[in-house]
Amino acid sequence: MSSTRQTDLPDHIDAAVLKIAGVVVLGAIMSILDITVVNVALPTFQTVFGTTGHPIAYSTVAWSVTAYTLALATVIPLTGWAADRFGTKRLYMTAIALFVSGSVLCATAWSIGALIGFRVLQGLGGGMLMPLGMTIMTRAAGPHRMGRLMAILGVPMLLGPILGPIIGGWLIQVASWHWIFLINAPIGLVAIVYAWRVLPRDTPEPSESFDFLGMLLMSPGLALFLFGVSSIPSEGTATAPRVWVSMLVGATLMVLFVVHSFRPEHPLLDLRLFRNRNLTVSIITMFLFAAAFFGGLLLVPTYFQEVRGESTLQAGLLVAPQGIGAMITMPIAGSQVDKHPIGRIVPFGLLFILIGMFGLTQLTATTPYPVIITELFVMGLGMGATMMPLFTSALKTLRAHEVARGSTLLNITQQIASSVGVAIMSVLLTNHLQASKLAGPAMASLHLPALAEKIPAAAIAQGLEDAAHAFAETYWVAWGMVLLTVVPALFLPRKREEAHLLDDEGVPPVIVQ
């Protein structure tokens, strides 16, 4: 490993960088694929882990998604410290092995509680993959090629959202739900071998002290707060002790964490980086965007299955246009980030999302599929022009020694926002569905012919319309959150700024084999 000056680096993405990018892409696909694969399986979990005629509440099975993303957020702050202590290559391979082990255990789950527990283990491995990969690639590419590299990385990474629902639906339909987790085993083994051969040898350095007190404050605080939010549907009210006590204790711990973070020299999360205006605005924008977009993302396949009666495979195919739309705009946005300020790119991406998501606020039980597919495609166009530019802009203005901490903040923001979004949307949807006495039986009748014979056709039709209205009402909240995201997005840089990804001598550290 050596350092090379920025002027010695080619403008194009060369083979040496692409080889390292391949390792990062494999890990990212595996982690992202697992989120989208499980989204399409939530209705299956409701039935499999419930009792005959009494499926588990949607908000309960949604914890299989929330627990995973929460575990991702929990382990991300450890990554920078552990990479210094044990070496990037060794840690990356360990993270993949932990992720694969958790996946295999998920396939053996005998109850929804066991599945949620194993998903936490899986997330602890998956959480290290993205920040490690971003740090590796930021250093390998140099600041003047980051936009193009992020675009190249973004396209194959989007195979996860596109193929996830399709693969998940197909595996559930032709085999069983167990295989949506077992599929990670061969991918993980290939990734471990690839990483061992391609990544440069580790050179661990004396690591900084670890902020154990910060870890003890943040992780339980976040978990308790989200647990309280997700408990509202089962309790029926936000005033139940299980809800408000959990939320109050969680919020208190997180406030104490913020106060504590400014005391140690090496805090768990370096909140001092918020002095960087671009990073601050990017993180605020990222939080609102991720909560709205990823929270709403899990609703679509559930709508297709529970309201329209589609199979898991068909639901996956119907969701795919969203990923295709993102694949189109992501490389375009990536190339433009190297030429134009992000403040002139991201607002247009949010505009596409607002247009597409507004259509989903009008969902009915009979909305034509071409209309829904078009709306999802437009949302995908917006996502491709929003996500990667936000990451790129924030990292380009950091010094070399700040990159690991900056990527940690960005990644944990995205994961926490996703957890919050999933919790909020699942709670809202469950509450709206419970408000209708006909929605539950009508949705169940689509998959149980014997039940359908006992319910009048008019009641089924009304129940499905009520269910569709519940999805539409939930999307209004997501749409409002995206609209709110426009406010910080307007404060993103509108003038081109030079990248500051340099060390103290003005040299960008680059991994060269």
From TrEMBL:
<dbReference type="InterPro" id="IPR020846">
    <property type="entry name" value="MFS_dom"/>
</dbReference>
<feature type="transmembrane region" description="Helical">
    <location>
        <begin position="149"/>
        <end position="172"/>
    </location>
</feature>
<keyword id="KW-1133">Transmembrane helix</keyword>
<dbReference type="InterPro" id="IPR004638">
    <property type="entry name" value="EmrB-like"/>
</dbReference>
<keyword id="KW-0812">Transmembrane</keyword>
<dbReference type="Pfam" id="PF07690">
    <property type="entry name" value="MFS_1"/>
</dbReference>
<dbReference type="InterPro" id="IPR011701">
    <property type="entry name" value="MFS"/>
</dbReference>
<dbReference type="GO" id="GO:0005886">
    <property type="term" value="C:plasma membrane"/>
</dbReference>
<dbReference type="GO" id="GO:0022857">
    <property type="term" value="F:transmembrane transporter activity"/>
</dbReference>
<keyword id="KW-1003">Cell membrane</keyword>
<feature type="transmembrane region" description="Helical">
    <location>
        <begin position="210"/>
        <end position="229"/>
    </location>
</feature>
<protein>
    <submittedName>
        <fullName>DHA2 family efflux MFS transporter permease subunit</fullName>
    </submittedName>
</protein>
<feature type="transmembrane region" description="Helical">
    <location>
        <begin position="20"/>
        <end position="41"/>
    </location>
</feature>
<feature type="transmembrane region" description="Helical">
    <location>
        <begin position="345"/>
        <end position="365"/>
    </location>
</feature>
<keyword id="KW-0813">Transport</keyword>
<feature type="transmembrane region" description="Helical">
    <location>
        <begin position="61"/>
        <end position="79"/>
    </location>
</feature>
<feature type="domain" description="Major facilitator superfamily (MFS) profile">
    <location>
        <begin position="20"/>
        <end position="497"/>
    </location>
</feature>
<feature type="transmembrane region" description="Helical">
    <location>
        <begin position="178"/>
        <end position="198"/>
    </location>
</feature>
<feature type="transmembrane region" description="Helical">
    <location>
        <begin position="474"/>
        <end position="492"/>
    </location>
</feature>
<feature type="transmembrane region" description="Helical">
    <location>
        <begin position="371"/>
        <end position="395"/>
    </location>
</feature>
<feature type="transmembrane region" description="Helical">
    <location>
        <begin position="116"/>
        <end position="137"/>
    </location>
</feature>
<keyword id="KW-0472">Membrane</keyword>
<feature type="transmembrane region" description="Helical">
    <location>
        <begin position="416"/>
        <end position="433"/>
    </location>
</feature>
<feature type="transmembrane region" description="Helical">
    <location>
        <begin position="91"/>
        <end position="110"/>
    </location>
</feature>
<feature type="transmembrane region" description="Helical">
    <location>
        <begin position="312"/>
        <end position="333"/>
    </location>
</feature>
<feature type="transmembrane region" description="Helical">
    <location>
        <begin position="241"/>
        <end position="259"/>
    </location>
</feature>
<comment type="similarity">
    <text>Belongs to the major facilitator superfamily. EmrB family.</text>
</comment>
<feature type="transmembrane region" description="Helical">
    <location>
        <begin position="279"/>
        <end position="300"/>
    </location>
</feature>
